[in-house]
Structures are given as C-alpha cells and as structure tokens.
Amino acid sequence: MSSRTLPLLFINLGGEMLYILDQRLRAQNIPADKAKKVMNDIITTMFNKKFLEELFKPQELYSKKALRTVFDRLAHASIMRLNQASMDKLYDLMTMAFKYQVLLCPRPKDILLVSFNHMDAIKDFVKETPSILSQVDETYKQLIEMYTPLSSGEFQLIRQTLLIFFQDMHIRVSIFLKDKVQNSNGRFVLPTSGPVPHGTQIPGLIRMFSCSGEEVKKLQFRNGGNYTSALREGSFEMFGERVIKLGTNMYSVSRPVETHLSGTSKNSAQQKSVNTTPNPLAKEELNMLARLMGGLEVQKTSSVDNGFRVNLFATDEEEEEALISRPDEFSYDVINIQATKLSGGCTEQARY
Amino acid sequence: MMYHKEKSIQIKSSASALYNNLSVLRIAPRNLTYFSVVHANMVNMVSASWDGLNYSHRQLQSKEPNVTTSSSLIMQAAWCVLPYREILVLTSQKGIQMYESDGSIMVYWHALDTPETPTAQAVFARGIAAVRDKYICVGISSGSVLVFDVPSKGSNITLSEVLEEHKESITDMASECSGSLECIADLVSADDSGNLSVWKSGEDFQLLNKIPGFDMSCSSVKLWKGTVVAGYGTGQIRLYEAITGIIHAEINAHARWIYSLDIAPFSGLVRSAFTCSLPFQIVHMYNECVTDTQICGAKFCDGDGYAFAVTGYDLSEIIRYTQA
C-alpha cells in the first residue's frame, strides 16, 4: 500500500525500544557511563546516514520477520546483550505500544506528531553528544520534508498500511491493563469522549440549506458520545509543543514492564493464516534487508569485560521460563544474513 | 426507530482497516445473503441462509494470473449488480479481478501499470460501482476511473473508456441506487481531496458536474434520487444536489473519520444513520456504539433498511442489527 510507511514504523518502534531499554538499564542499576554508551551507540546506529537513505526510499513494508531482524541487530549495536526471551518481550512491548498509538491517534496526520514525540525524547537522550545530535536533527529534516506535504488521504493510507502490519496482535501489556487502556482480551479501549480531532466539529448538528446557499434550519441530535472541542494543533516543526501525548515515554523505574501472551486458539489460527502463505520472493526480501542492514554498522564488542546482559524480566529464572513457555504462534523467526553488498534492483513483493 | 443486535456472523479472519470494507449481496430466490470482508491479501466470503441455520465460507486470494510473485494487498471487494448477472469485483495493488458472484470462477483480470521499483505515489485500484445495464467502473490511485463493458454472460469483458478527471486517488464510487430512470446522473466518483465528479453513462461517459472538496478526503459516497451523500475524514456528512452541486445539508455526524456509509434505496435511510426524503428533511433516527471497535464497513442488508451489518478492524465477525 503506502510506500512511505517504513520510516515512520522504524522510528516509532525504535523510540519505544529506547524508552524500554532506558528503563531497564536504570532498573538493573547499570553504571551510568555504560548505560549512556548503550543508548548513544543504538541511537547513532539508528540514525546512520546510509541506513536512513535506504529506509526513506519508497518501498513496501517489510514482513514482521524481516523487521524483527533489523531490531535484533539494532538492539545489539552496543555492549549490551539480550537473551532471546528478553528480545522477544522487548519486541512485543514495542509493537503493542505503537499499535496502540496508531489506533488512538485522533487524525491519521497525528501519527507524525507521535513520531515527533519519539524524536524529541531521542534528542533528549543524546543532548550531550553533538555528533549524534546532528544525526537526529538531520532525521527531523528528512521527516519534515517527506511527510508535511502529504494530504489527509495519504496519511490515512499510511495508517491503514500500519494497521495491516499490526493486525491480529493482541498481546496484553500490564501497563496498558493497569491504566485501563487495554481490555483483558488484549483489545484497546477506544474512548467515546474527550476532545474531537483538530478540524472536526463536535457531532450533533444538522444544518439545512436553501438553493441559494442560505441556512434555513438547524437541528441538534444526541450522538451517544461525550465530546468536547478540539485542542489546538501540535507543532509539525523541529521544535514546539506537540499537544498529543501519544508517543511520549510511559515507562519509569517504578512501572515495570510485563507482558502476558494472550494465546487463544482463534488468535493463533488467524496468525497462522497470514504467516504461513508461502513466499516465493523471500530471497528478494533478504536482498533488500541486506542492503538496509549494510548501513547498520554493528559494534564489535572490543572487550568481553565491557559487555553486559540486560534482562527484561524480574529474574533470570523468569526469563528462562518465558523462553520455554512462549507459544509457537508467537515466535519470531529471526533471519540470519550477512550484511554484504548485493546487486540487483528491487521488485515488488508482498510482505506481511 | 430502534434496532437490536442480532447474532454475529463469524468470519475466518479479521477485517482490515480499509474504506467500505463490507459488501452485501441479497439473493432472494435462494433465501441467502452473501457477505464479503477484506483481510490483507484475502477476501472472506460468507453465505448466510435467512433462517440463520446455514453458513458457508470461502476465501479468495488476490492471485494474479501469469505472475509468480505472491499476492498483493486487496483494497476493496464489492458485488456489482447488473440486470443479468452479479459480479464480484476485487481491487488490489496489482489490478482488478472479476469473479462470478459466488467467487467460484474468475472471469476477468486487468493489470495496473506497476513500476519496476516502488514510487512515492502508491499504485492501487479502489472504488467500485455497477452503472446502469452494463458498466462496471473502478477507480485508480492516479485518479483515473476505468469503465468496463460487461456482457450479459461470459468473460468477454472489455475496458471501454478511461475517465481522467480526478488528480488525487479515488476513494469511492457510487451509482444511482434509487432505481429511478429519471435521474440524469448515473455515477459519482470521490477522491482524496474531497472532490466529487458526477457522470452520465453511455458509450462515452459524460462529466455533468464537479463538486469541489475542502482539502479533506471523501472516503465514502452514495447517490440517491439525484442527491450525493458524502462522508468525509472530518466526520462530516454532506448532501449535494448532484447536477448543480448545491449543498442541501451538512451533518456533524461523527467524531472520527467516516469509513463507510450506505443508503437503503427504498426508504432513504442512510446508515450512519440518518434518513432523508425529498423535499429535504433530515431526521436523525438512531445511534449505536460498537464498543472498542473501529468500524470499517457498514451496509444495509435489504432495500428498506430493516437490517444492517458492520465490520470492525481486527474483528472476526460481522455484527448485525435488525429493527426491533
């Protein structure tokens, strides 16, 4: 569908990843200098010029499998290591958070404001490192250049493309459950109250006009919701108040991150029906991925002593248990590829 | 007027968040109703008997012939009712497929010009309407409208004309649904900037009028007794006289983007849910809220508006309501 979806998907998922890692690094009392190195290394890799060039090219969305491979690589761009169970959980949280943000956005265009919220936070993480800061600023400019001219319909197409990517994902996240934004069946709560989106009128009015365009009658009706006037519009520039809160950091040291895998048989059947369609062009996707990852320079761990492991669970035992008990339908098969330069143009293919 | 919820119809996979993602075909001689709902690269079809006892399912994939790539995403599926036959039309990123109404046989395939490498402008077909006796019209992301000439039987379907009026992607199209032969306008097409074009069908389709948008996508449109009913991304519904473009009414109907609207042609009920009659009276009839669901398809199941059905993103069921 929209060939402009991948940069937004990547940046927002990356932003969520950084929020979660930042919280875990602090919760595990990782020394400040090491924690900072991890965050800096990941961010500089994320905003690598060559990588972004590939990312911003018009292209269809990658499959879930391919995208997970990119984030695996990104998460290991520094001295931090994650076991598979923790990486799985990290990816679950990232994807459910962004799915929530996309669904709850008042207008499709507001997905850009959500992206700016993530960018603003990332900028704050690296504010003391000018070289990385300039990479982040460069990315703002690319986002503004590509997305601010788009029409409402084109943003809706991006939104629809993202929603197909997230379709049938109903992993329960304890922070969402606690805040009552997600139900126990994994579906998000959609409010029927609050401010209407910018540009929308509060429902309830019918105006009728004569042939000369004069208003001749006005009627009110009850629309079943409880809406208020729109808030002012957020800023689509490099700086400014975004107004929308979606995409800001919801984690803190005191709010631990847990997931429950809601594996009803219906969900698993649906996931299977999408994922098991044979894809004869997997090879082409691998080529594209290799090209993309060629820009992702992964740090070689120079000293074994410097490296450390981060756990997304409360204990090592929990992490081990999570790996063993993760239902098959929720496993992310990660692609192992060499990031060598491959020739050939890209052809269209479907990736789900 | 009150509606109550009936037992939902389960479908094999969930509905995707696409405009007008529900099509209904009533087959009175066999006491059956067909429903179709798009899920990514597949269409879920259900045939439901009116006594509620029998359901049969079929899934269609958008497999384009002569192409070895895997299937593309489907934008819309809709039944087109012509005097002698009903055709199921699927529009996707690769092209347009037409099937016999039960989805059993593909009778026609039209490929879109897809570039070698993806371009910034997406390529897809969207917006489907059956017009008068023998035309099926389909919109394209470039803004073009393809007019297909459909014989009363067989697969000798031909592309008869390409209408180049819109500059933005077509979102939806609708033909005059009242059955009245007096109406001059046969077809209305809508696009992503909210512009509407009104057409008269024939060997050469004639542009009767252009109704300008207001920089907001018109995602769903209907044509009834010469009146265009249009739903916009702002949640507003507007009613225009098709031939003149004179605005009859404006309704602040919803707090979110309208994904679908429908008219019951015999009664003038508009699902979203207003009734209109001529001379213009608009009366709000009914509200319903489907909890925690982003609705993507809404259709009356019969010409009087006695029953309607909706689909929602991520939901694997068709929710139904009938008049109490």
From TrEMBL, chain A:
It holds the Pfam family Oscp1. GO terms for cellular component: cytoplasm; plasma membrane. This is Organic solute carrier partner 1. It comes from Esox lucius.
TrEMBL record, chain B:
It comes from the Eukaryota. This is WD repeat-containing protein 54 beta-propeller domain-containing protein. Residues 2-322 form the WD repeat-containing protein 54 beta-propeller domain. It holds the Pfam family WDR54.
